[in-house]
Write a structure and sequence with these properties.
Blueprint: H1 2-17, E1 21-24, E2 27-30, E3 36-40, H2 51-59, E4 66-78, E5 85-89, E6 95-100, E7 115-127, H3 129-138, H4 143-147, E8 153-166
Parallel strand pairs: 6-8
Antiparallel strand pairs: 1-2, 3-8, 4-5, 4-7, 5-6, 7-8
C-alpha cells in the first residue's frame, strides 16, 4: 500500500509540474510560449498593449488622471545604481518613466535594449529640475549633460506592480 501511495504521489506531482494551464483564483490562462523573468507581482503577458497604443492613451491623459493598464516596450535606460527605475520607449520618440510600487522590487541593471511588459498605473507628471538631474546622474549622464537641465518637463510616468522581462 505504501508503494502504491508513493507511486500515485509521484505521478500526480509529475503531471502538475508539466501542466500547460496555470490557475490564479477564478482566472486561468495558457502559459506563454515565450519565457519571461518576473519581477514584483506575478503577471502574465495577456491583454498587453503595444508601446504605440500606450502613447495614444498617454496623449489623452491630464496631469491629475491615472489609468490601470499593461503594455510592452523596449527599455531605453535603467537605474545604474540599483535597478530602481527604467525608461521605456513609446511612439514619436517619447518615453515613459517607470518606478516600482512601494520600492518593493528592482530590475537587473543590464536590460537596456530588452523587451519588457509592465503592469500598473500610467499617469502624466511634471518633473522638477532637481528630479531630472537625479535621474540623469543615476543614468550615468555626464556633468555637462546634467547641467543642461534647467526647466521642468512634462513626462509620462508609470507605477509598476509587476514586470516581465523577455528572456
Amino acid at each position: 500500500m505504501y508503494r502504491f501511495c508513493l507511486l500515485v504521489t509521484l505521478l500526480v506531482a509529475t503531471n502538475l509540474s508539466n501542466a500547460q494551464e496555470v490557475k490564479y483564483g477564478a482566472k486561468s490562462f495558457e502559459k506563454s510560449k515565450m519565457e519571461y523573468d518576473v519581477f514584483g507581482e506575478k503577471i502574465d503577458n495577456s491583454n498587453s498593449i503595444t508601446s504605440a497604443m500606450m502613447y495614444e492613451k498617454y496623449s489623452n491623459l491630464k496631469t491629475s488622471d491615472s489609468l490601470k493598464t499593461k503594455f510592452s516596450a523596449k527599455v531605453l535606460d535603467v537605474c545604474k545604481a540599483k535597478g530602481c527605475w527604467m525608461r521605456l520607449a513609446l511612439d514619436n520618440g517619447e518615453e515613459a518613466m517607470v518606478k516600482f510600487k512601494d520600492y518593493g522590487f528592482f530590475v537587473p541593471l543590464d536590460i537596456t535594449g530588452r523587451e519588457v511588459v509592465v503592469n500598473g498605473s500610467a499617469f502624466v507628471n511634471a518633473v522638477s529640475v532637481e528630479e531630472q538631474k537625479h535621474y540623469a546622474k543615476d543614468g550615468g549622464k555626464s556633468q555637462e549633460e546634467i547641467d543642461k537641465i534647467t526647466t521642468p518637463k512634462k513626462t509620462y510616468g508609470f507605477l509598476a506592480d509587476g514586470v516581465l522581462l523577455k528572456k
